[in-house]
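User: structure tokens for this one?
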Amino acid sequence: MSVPAFSDIAKPSTDLLNKDFYHTAAANLEVKSKAPNGVIFNVKGKSSHEGNTGGQIEAKYSDAPSGTYFQNLYLIICSQMDGANIIDSQIVLWPRNAALLMFYRRAGLTLTQAWTTSNSLDTKIELDNQIAKGLKAELLTHFLPSSQSKGAKLNLYFKQPNFHGRAYFDLLKGPTATVDAVLGHEGFLVGAEAGYDVQKAAITRYSATVGYTMPLYTAAITATNNLSIFSASYYHKVNSEVEAGAKAVWDSKSGDKVGLEVASKYRLDPSSFAKASFMALFH
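Assistant:
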């Protein structure tokens, strides 16, 4: 199994406990369409039970990777270039002649532009698995015309068979950085997360987790909020029809109270299911 991201180690139990319950989850609507030239249009809407409603319309275009583009053309025989680099150069010499060749590879950029109901113009540029194998880079910007507010963020994701790391940089506020990493081996997982403020030169928060995951069950123990809030979660897919999960939470700063959540899901048929949950606070 692939190593999950730090925030997804306990995802199976979290989804079982929180998803599909209308009184706790917001209502979401998403409509997608694809134009003949490959542009994907997406309309999203979200409404919470507090009366807040938001939405956005976005367009997404992916430029698939192509072969090599020769900036200067010469009738010569060249050695094979390294396909991992976006831009390569080569100097070719022969009697009384020389040439500098530049090779540019279209790297496969993905551009997404969105306009939200809060009048924010958002842009995201993605470069996946091109800078290095397993590395994905995202540049996100937003602009509010009414207040002239601007924002820019850089996100990096790196995945290998036994490693999953992420780094989030807020370039204009702080700047600040949030980094997390997970190591996995034969189902065992160990992960940590930390936040850093560049101007203050200080770590602002940190968390840690250990877990064990298999195709039919997962278990995790997580310490968040500077290792002051501890949670233990468990998920079990009993069979193709029944799923069960539980989560216990203890805040070391608020005393000896422990919160417990239990949920179960039963699939009635391929298109319908029933879920039940129970929450309690023990002293």
